[in-house]
């Protein structure tokens, strides 16, 4: 059966069985959300998982970042998979991989098996995220495809606001991390059964598409090396460690050989010549920088709220307010980016992100008060401006490219932005730790044991019935907590400066004026 007949037969589902057609939308959306939330929801439970598997809490970041390496590669490979294996077959195969990986992750007792399975889990999740969209597009004419991409764009953006909250809620209900993977195993299995019923017997045309295996292996080695370096560098004492030095060497060498190989490849895995185009280069520097910093800022904000006594669930409630702007800012950004100069909307969104980071750096985590509004982090609404960043960045990225290169440019941007999650949290975490040590030393130097305020504080503790050693222990814990929060403030000020620079940097790109259509 040729491709046009296969597509036509699938469209018959919408005409003969409208209820099944609507249900298929829900199943594909549910499978998409399961794949998307498998990173953000797990992040809240990651410390419990690695602790039970006998590792230090610092290994939790490693289990998250290796997942993002897989997701980045899976999303990038999905166009090739859809042609070489067929969209439906590739989607069903990816869901099977998710089912198997979640089952192993739920029952394994070995940390390194757990860590290793996070990579194929990410690969399959990334593929599912793209293939769900490709499959649904078959049921619509080309002029309706923007509806499909906008629908899944909405769903994707919810992961930043609701994903961590889902994980926190599970913990609040006393579900452990193994229950989380068992639930995913069951839900993916349910979605697979529905997808098999709707799509399993439909034939697709398979194309023999060239696959640049060498380029894929080189970029995978590069990503894995730098991801592990960023995640483990602080614990391994950076370049005083042979392990870190070997990773750095492998990462640099594989990156160099990757560029050389791709320049000589007729049908490259990643068209590195696109970096010679200024708009593409700037968009794909700004995108990874901004999203990597944003993911790291999420982790640090949740950690800061937990540090001052909030539960995992309550600490994640700082993120959902960002979704208040999603229903109107995202479609507005899509509309303006496609019909006018995308730089103003991009600059506006980055400016709001800078404001969010600055306001967070001034928030009093101890008295729960902000200069903007008391007792409520209303600044979190400004965080919602992140939902308006992707459409203008994509438009800038493809500016001036031929239609043949536009999809490749978009896929390259997705690859780099997703990979930035793997290094963003690690590097910002390192900055946080260094600033925490600096602030602790400064507090110790400026608040000695003979300081009148310190003496008064210790005396109040003794009046409450504590002996001298207990009072000193409480004081030391208070100083540690205060130094951590001051370091959080410093880190968010750094992010505020970064986003402020990007607000103006975006204007270095060049956008041609759109021609007005004649009436």
Question: Could you write a compact summary of the structure shown?
Answer:
The chain is mainly alpha-helical and 519 residues long. Helix content is 76%, strand content 0%.
Main attributes of the structure:
Growth Hormone, Chain: A, 18 helices, 3 domains, globular, mainly alpha, 519 residues
SSE topology sketch:
Elements: H1 3-16, H2 18-52, H3 59-84, H4 87-107, H5 111-137, H6 145-172, H7 177-199, H8 213-232, H9 242-264, H10 278-307, H11 312-316, H12 326-339, H13 343-361, H14 380-383, H15 390-398, H16 403-446, H17 452-463, H18 468-505
Can you give a write-up of this model?
This protein has 519 residues and is an all-alpha fold. The chain folds into three domains: 1-210, Growth Hormone, Chain: A, CATH 1.20.1250; 212-268; 277-510, MFS general substrate transporter like domains (Growth Hormone, Chain: A). Helix content is 76%, strand content 0%. The chain has 18 helices and no strands. The chain has helices at 3-16, 18-52, 59-84, 87-107, 111-137, 145-172, 177-199, 213-232, 242-264, 278-307, 312-316, 326-339, 343-361, 380-383, 390-398, 403-446, 452-463, 468-505. Helix 2 (18-52) runs antiparallel to helix 3 (59-84) and helix 2 (18-52) packs antiparallel against helix 5. It starts with a helix and ends in a 14-residue tail after the last helix. Residues 370-376 have low confidence and may be disordered.
């Amino acid at each position: 059966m040729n491709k046009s007949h296969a597509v036509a037969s699938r469209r018959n589902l919408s005409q003969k069985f409208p209820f099944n057609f609507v249900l298929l939308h829900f199943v594909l959306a549910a499978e998409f959300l399961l794949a998307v939330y498998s990173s953000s929801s797990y992040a809240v439970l990651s410390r419990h998982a690695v602790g039970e598997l006998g590792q230090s809490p610092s290994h939790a970041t490693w289990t998250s970042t290796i997942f993002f390496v897989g997701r980045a590669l899976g999303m990038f490979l999905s166009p090739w998979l859809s042609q070489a294996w067929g969209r439906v077959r590739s989607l069903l195969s990816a869901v099977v991989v998710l089912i198997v990986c979640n089952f192993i992750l739920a029952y394994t007792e070995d940390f390194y098996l757990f860590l290793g399975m996070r990579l194929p889990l990410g690969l399959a999740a990334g593929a599912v995220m793209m293939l769900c969209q490709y499959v649904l597009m078959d049921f619509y004419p080309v002029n309706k495809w923007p509806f499909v991409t906008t629908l899944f764009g909405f769903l994707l953006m919810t992961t930043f606001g609701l994903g961590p909250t889902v994980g926190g809620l599970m913990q609040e209900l006393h579900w452990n991390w193994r229950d989380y993977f068992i639930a995913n195993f069951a839900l993916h299995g349910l979605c697979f059964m529905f997808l098999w019923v709707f799509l399993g017997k439909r034939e697709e045309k398979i194309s023999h598409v060239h696959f640049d295996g060498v380029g894929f292996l080189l970029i995978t080695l590069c990503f894995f090396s730098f991801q592990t370096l960023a995640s483990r560098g602080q614990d391994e004492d950076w370049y005083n460690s042979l392990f870190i030095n070997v990773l750095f060497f492998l990462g640099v060498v594989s990156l160099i050989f990757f560029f050389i190989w791709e320049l000589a490849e007729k049908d490259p895995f990643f068209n590195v010549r696109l970096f010679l185009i200024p708009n593409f280069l700037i968009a794909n520097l700004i995108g990874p920088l901004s999203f990597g910093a944003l993911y790291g800022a999420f982790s640090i904000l949740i950690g800061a709220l937990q540090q001052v006594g909030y539960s995992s669930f309550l600490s994640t409630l700082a993120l959902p307010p960002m979704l208040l702007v999603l229903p109107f800012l995202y479609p507005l950004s899509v509309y303006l980016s496609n019909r006018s100069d995308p730089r103003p909307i991009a600059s506006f969104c980055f400016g709001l992100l800078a404001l969010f980071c600055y306001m967070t750096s001034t928030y009093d985590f101890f008295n729960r008060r902000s200069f903007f509004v008391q007792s409520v982090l209303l600044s979190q609404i400004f965080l919602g401006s992140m939902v308006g960043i992707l459409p203008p960045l994509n438009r800038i990225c493809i500016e001036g490219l031929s239609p043949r290169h536009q999809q490749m440019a978009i896929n390259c941007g997705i690859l780099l932005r997703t990979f930035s999650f793997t290094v963003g949290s690690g590097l910002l975490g390192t900055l946080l730790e260094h600033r925490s040590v600096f602030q602790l030393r400064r507090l110790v130097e400026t608040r000695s044991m003979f300081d009148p305020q310190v003496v008064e504080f210790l005396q109040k503790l003794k009046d409450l019935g504590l002996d001298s050693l207990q009072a000193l222990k409480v004081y030391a814990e208070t100083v540690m907590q205060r130094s951590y929060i001051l370091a959080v403030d410093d880190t968010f000020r750094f992010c505020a400066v970064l986003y402020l620079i990007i607000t103006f940097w975006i204007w270095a790109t060049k956008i041609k004026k759109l021609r007005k259509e004649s009436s």
